[in-house]
Structure formats: structure tokens, C-alpha cells
Amino acid sequence: METLNGNAVAKVLKESIKTEVLALKSKGVKTPHLAAILVGSVGASMTYVAAKEKDCHEVGFDSTVLRFPETITEAELLAEVEKINNNSAIDGLIVQLPLPKHINEKKVTETISWKKDVDGFHPMNVGLMFKGLPCFLPATPYGIIKLLEHYKIETTGKHCVIIGRSDIVGKPMSALMLQKNCTVTVCHSKTKNLKEMTLQADIVIAALGIPEFLKGEMVKEGAVVIDVGITRVDDASNPKGFVLKGDVDFASVSPKCSFITPVPGGVGPMTRVGLLLNTLDAIKRNQDLRSKM
Ligand code: NAP
């Protein structure tokens, strides 16, 4: 069994992004600039945005975080999004979710210009992705593909079982694994005999948000197991008061696997790199457009 080291692969990819940024700058191209909108002061959201800011600085991107109080109205937030859409200094925009209940997340996501939608949530990017055309891929599935490619894991002809059908992980993952020539089965909360499905899988991608759901008895010998889940579980013995758990019971599953991702240190850092790759792509595309004008 080999552990897929997301931290190490993310480091390699970040180095190559950094090199590309320097090369672009030496050709007179502007510094890639990622903007993030953060509404309110939810601890997890603040942590995620701070991590994204740190990543940007590490690879030489500019980053701006626009912070708004939880009382911001939907109309005001949409106006802020439009301002960034029209600001040519900014290449990519993310709005940290979840948003307060009085704001329609779908409306906000769809107001972001699809050309700056580096989270890949806009319907235009989703459509392009399903057609296999150039687009911004959602960061988590993008990061997982990069991880599989880095370790040269064979996908052609393999049966990939995905647990979870969310818009940000399960559904886009199914499209990407299909493009990697897998036979894909997508399971969800209404799936009957889920164990029968996972036992047939050469590759299992668990993205359901239930800690340690996938047990050793549910996977076949030699399977590749990708654990997307991250759940904070209370743990008084930990200084933070919680521990992060994946959707895979690592202790029982790992002895049967050929490859497995740990939590933390597997998919999480690759997701962060996915966002950086999209932001770099945004500036390259804009540059390409400018050169054709
Ligand atoms: P989500 O929107 O809550 O979707 C969960 C999916 O799992 C749904 O499709 C649901 O089915 C399915 N599901 C729930 N219970 C199930 C069961 N007992 N059997 C089979 N399927 C079941 O979650 P998400 O946003 O995709 O995230 C999933 C997990 O990944 C969470 O722990 C999240 O924190 C984590 N995550 C991690 C990263 C990362 O960077 N590592 C990124 C994104 C998400 P229905 O559709 O039928 O309800």
C-alpha cells in the first residue's frame, strides 16, 4: 500500500506555478490576482480564506480579501461581485461559502463572470466541463485528477465508484473520471446495496461527509481509495478541541489498498492547488485573448 501524499505533490505543483508566474512576469504579463469575498466571521470560512491568501503569496500571486459584515444585503453583495467582474486588475474571484441564509448562493455564484469563476461553479463552466472543453474545473475534482496523474495511476478501463453526488465534488468528479476512460458509478444516499458497488470498484472516491463510513470489508484487494471527506469531530484530548476525520476508515481500508489518500494531507492540499492552477489559467487565457485582439 502506498499513501498518496497530497502535501508533497501540492508542493511540487506550487513550485512549478511559481516558476510560470516569474516567466510570465518576465514577458511583461501582469501578476495573477485572486480576489476572495468573505461574508461574516464563521471560523472555518475565515481559516479557508486565510489559507488561500497564504497560497497566493507563496506562488507569487496578488490576493485581495474583501470582507463584509453578515448584515450585507443580497443586492449589495451582487453589486460587489459586479464591481470585481469589471475590474481588469483581478483575474479570478471566489466567494467563500456558505453565505448567510438571507443571501441566495446560486444567484451569487451565477453573477460571478464565468471568465473569472476560478471555483468552476458557474453553469457555463459546468457545461464546458461536461463537454470536455477548456474551462475552470472545480478545485477538488481537479486536484484529485492531478494527484492520480502524478502517481501515474491507471484509469483507462477501470471501474470508478464515487460516493456522493454534490455539485462541487461527486458530479464533476464523475465527468472527469469518464473523460479519464473509467466506467463510472455514482452512489448517493438513496443507493441500494452500496457495498456491492464499492466491492466492484478499482477506484473508490468517498465524498459524503460521514466520518469513517467506508470500511475495509467494503473495498476489494488492490483498490485505489481517495478520501475527500473532512469532518470536524469533537475531541477534548486535542488542543484544538477537535480532530479532522475523513470518510474512510483508514485503519481497516488501507491494508487492502494499492493506493490511499490520508486525511489530512491528501485531497485537501490538492484542492488548494486546483484553485491556484485555475487562477494561473485565467491570466494565461486573458493574455491569449489580448494577443489575438
Ligand atoms: P454534500 O454536498 O453534503 O454531499 C454529500 C453527498 O453524499 C450527497 O450526494 C449525499 O447523497 C451523499 N450521501 C450522504 N449520506 C450518504 C450515505 N449514507 N450513503 C451514500 N451517499 C451518501 O457534501 P460535499 O460538499 O460533496 O462534501 C463531502 C465531504 O467532502 C465533506 O466532508 C466535505 O467537508 C468534504 N470536502 C472536502 C474537500 C477537500 O478539499 N478535501 C473539498 C470539498 C468537500 P444525496 O445527494 O442523496 O443527499
Provide a descriptive summary of the structure in words:
This protein has 293 residues and is an alpha/beta fold. It has 2 domains: 87 residues, Leucine Dehydrogenase, chain A, domain 1 (Rossmann fold); 130 residues, NAD(P)-binding Rossmann-like Domain (Rossmann fold). It has a 6-stranded parallel sheet. A 3-stranded parallel sheet has the order 3-2-4, with helices on both faces. It has a two-stranded antiparallel ribbon with strand order 9-10. β2, α2 and β3 form a beta-alpha-beta unit. α2 crosses α10. It is globular, with a radius of gyration of 19 Å. The model has no long low-confidence stretch (mean pLDDT 96). Bound molecules: NADP nicotinamide-adenine-dinucleotide phosphate. The site of NADP nicotinamide-adenine-dinucleotide phosphate (NAP) has 25 residues, from α10.
Quickly describe the structure.
By secondary structure, the protein is α/β, with parallel strands linked by helices. The chain has 10 helices and 11 strands.
Bound molecules: NADP nicotinamide-adenine-dinucleotide phosphate
Compute the separation of the termini in Å: 52 Å
Whole-number total of structural domains: 2
β content, as a range?
Answer: 15-25%
Please, what is the oligomeric state? single chain
| CATH 4th-level superfamily of the largest domain | NAD(P)-binding Rossmann-like Domain
Strand order, largest beta sheet: 1-11-8-7-5-6
> What is the CATH domain class of the largest domain?
Alpha Beta
**Which value, in Å, is the CA radius of gyration?**
19 Å
What is the CATH third-level topology name of the largest domain?
Rossmann fold
Runs in which pLDDT lies below 50 for 5 or more consecutive residues are none
Mean pLDDT, as a whole number?
96
Secondary-structure element order, N to C: EHEHEHEHHHEHEHEEEEHEH
SS content category: alpha/beta
- Shape category: globular
Report the helical percentage: 40-55%
Provide the CATH architecture of the largest domain: 3-Layer(aba) Sandwich
Biggest sheet character:
6 strands, parallel
Number of helices: 10
